[in-house]
Amino acid sequence: MNKLLIILGIGFLLITCKGDVNEEVAQKQESQRDHRSISSDCPDFLQKRKQDNLNISILLDLSNRIELSNQQAKDSAYISSLAKVFNTHIKNKKLGLLYDKMQVFFDPIPLDQRINKNAELLKVSYVKGVSKDILMPETLKLYDSIPSQIYDLVRKGSKKNGYPGSDIWRFFKDHVKDYVVENCRRNVLVILTDGYMYYDKTVMKDKNRTSFLTPQSLRKLQLNNSSWKEDLEKRNLGFIPATSNLEDLEVLVIGITDQNNENPYTPDIIKTYWSRWFDEMGIKKYKIKNSDIPTNIETVIADFILNKRYGI
Predict the structure, then answer these.
(1) Does any domain span residue 83?
(2) DSSP letter string over 15-59?
(3) Is 266 within 8 Å of 281 (Cβ atoms)?
(4) Are strands 238-239 and 285-290 parallel, antiparallel or unpaired?
(5) 5 is a domain residue
(6) Which residues are CB-neighbours of 229 under 8 A, at least 6 positions away?
(7) How far is residue 238's CA from residue 139's CA, in Å, rounded to a whole number?
(8) The CATH number of the domain where 269 resides is what?
């Protein structure tokens, strides 16, 4: 009887151990399947050269800022410079290694469908098999002409419907991860804006944090002396973070403009708002530049995107 009990006990242990082993094997197989499904989003041959696969997105602030003197001409020149820098990058890549794209966004979507159709024309994709000789000059041609057409249509529409503003905050919350961030490319978002942020359907406050910043709201903060930065930190002023985990996104902001002439610290305050916002959303690399003549900004764009100076 004792021998029978011992045999049964050993058998039970073997079955239990086998079950544990089978379960462990099943878990490893499931883990491997999960890993393969995650890795399949970006094949190894693309992942290895991810930093050389450019994904440039341009977010246009189509608010009443474009009525400022020469703003349309400046923005058009900035966008043209982006196309030149993008082409410089493409020119230095082998045909078999092409996996680069550039596109334009705005938020909210304009009512005039002609504007949206023009934006579609600015979606340029370079992949293996395309002709650089054909596509590169076509890219420059599109980016030299289409942005001005978009601005003309927006300004004409504003006479009837007014400017809706620019919902940059909501673009980050709802769209940036889906539209701008990709696993297999180096993601660069370029925002053309004066630095103020306002959209009437996205007005939120959380204590001293907001989803907006206007000349009027900035004036009420009374940050008009040399201790403005200490005051801003003490009061925890800034934008409400719109999202998080944006470590795989780089951002270049161009066009910070002072519309609050009585406060000489305004540009620095605006930059601090944006810097804190980017930091809190996890963005590691960013640059925020004032409005300037296009030739100066072209150098900034080349430095940021190409990581070194190029003769363009």
Answers:
(1) yes
(2) HHHHHHHHHHHHHHHHHHHHHHHHHTTS-HHHHTTGGGSEEEEEE
(3) no
(4) unpaired
(5) no
(6) 268, 272
(7) 38
(8) 3.40.50
Mean pLDDT for 56-70 is 93
Number of folded domains that form the chain: 1
Give the Cα separation of 159 and 153 in Å (integer).
10
Q: Tell me the helix, strand and coil percentages in the chain, rounded to 5.
A: 55, 15, 30
Task: Note the residue count of the chain.
Answer: 312
Distance CA 171, CA 175 (A): 5
For residue 292, the one-letter residue type is D
Q: Is residue 76 part of a domain?
A: yes
Q: Give me the residues paired with residue 198 across strands.
A: 166
227-252 pLDDT, tens digit per residue, is: 999 999 999 999 999 999 999 999 99
Helix or strand run (H / E) with residue 101: strand 99-105
CA 121, distance to chain mean position in Å, is 20
CA distance 108 to 155: 15
> Which pairing describes strands 54-60 and 99-105: parallel, antiparallel, or unpaired?
parallel
CA–CA gap between residue 242 and residue 278 (Å, rounded): 10
213: DSSP letter: B
Residue with tokens 């066009």: 255
Residue 143 lies in a domain: yes
Three-class DSSP category at 157 = helix
Four-residue CA torsion sign, 143, 188, 244, 34: positive
Model pLDDT for residues 99-121, shown as the tens digit of each residue: 999 999 999 988 889 999 999 99
